[in-house]
Write a structure and sequence with these properties.
It is a single chain. The protein has about 80 residues and is mostly helical. The protein contains 3 helices and no strands.
Length: about 80
């Protein structure tokens, strides 16, 4: 099991090294910087919980990018459903 201190250190390192890349990749998917920033922040918050349970991934920046982009897709779909109602 991964310790909370190890997860916090991994998240801090991923933030320091990869924030800009994660945000850029997410912004390309979102085509909306505000939405991208929100989804990236949510991905980092999710990392704190998920990595504690499942361990730190081999490529934290890729995990964060994938998680943030999935949140973008969910947000866009949710907005489309609300508009069509």
């Amino acid at each position: 099991m991964t310790t909370k201190a190890a997860v916090e250190a991994a998240v801090e390192d991923a933030h320091r090294r990869g924030w800009a890349l994660v945000l850029a990749a997410t912004a390309r998917a979102a085509r909306n910087l505000d939405l991208a920033e929100e989804c990236v922040q949510e991905a980092y918050a999710e990392a704190m919980v998920s990595w504690l349970r499942h361990g730190i991934p081999a490529n934290p920046e890729a995990w964060l990018t994938t998680t943030a982009r999935r949140r973008v897709v969910d947000a866009i779909r949710r907005e489309q459903v609300l508009r069509s109602s």
